[in-house]
Here is the input.
Amino acid sequence: MGDTGSRPPQLRPGRALAHTPGASGSGSPHRSDSRPPQTPRGARHSDQDGRLGTTPPVPGRPTFLLGLPALLLALITWQVAAHGPLARADEHLSGSLVHPDRLSELLADLGNITVAVPILAVVLVYTAVRARRAGTDRWWLPSTAAAVLMAAVPAVIVPLKEAVARPGPPVMGPGTGFYPSGHTATAVIAYGAGALLLLPWLRTPSARRGLVVTCLTLNALVAFGLIRRGYHWPLDVAASWCLSLILLQLMLLVVARHRRGAAEG
Here is the structure.
């Protein structure tokens, strides 16, 4: 790992986590209306793929990335709260998927706060130190934004749990508050934010792809463990995925806005 230029790496919003890192982005220095930029081409610092900076995101992409998960989250929440056909199908599917064993329990534990948060903390410190040594403006901002987002997860998840009050799978016994899955949200935010912070510091596309695959695999394993162990219904997990994607995208947009404000100031 290492930086490849005089300017420190920065994340760029509008790139979904599942997109292949290192692929060519919307890095054209020309405006979207095909007119040349006011700043001379030679005076503009070009960004590497995956950075926040002078290159604007692709028009419409942030709206799509926020809108689609929000729409799915609203649909799932409505069906679960009303115990509609989708929720009934979800419960039927869960009955054929639940087979508690030691492996599924260990995989579900990857979404525990005691596992995921320390891993994110290491990444936050590492990327903040590298950004500071590289002389990045507001070097603390991405790590701080990720830490605040991680701390905000309970404040978002707990009210939803109380409002929906969904009972858990039969193996969990009586009780409510299983929708959405807190373990899933913890895993997606911790591993997802960590991957987003690390991506710009990796030199090669293969290293970036490896990081993304690792992040996706960890979250898939957490979901598999939660469902197979019977800790959550499948829709509990799906809703947390949608919610977490929205939160991660908001984090990127906030960081990008502050970066642009600092550059223009």
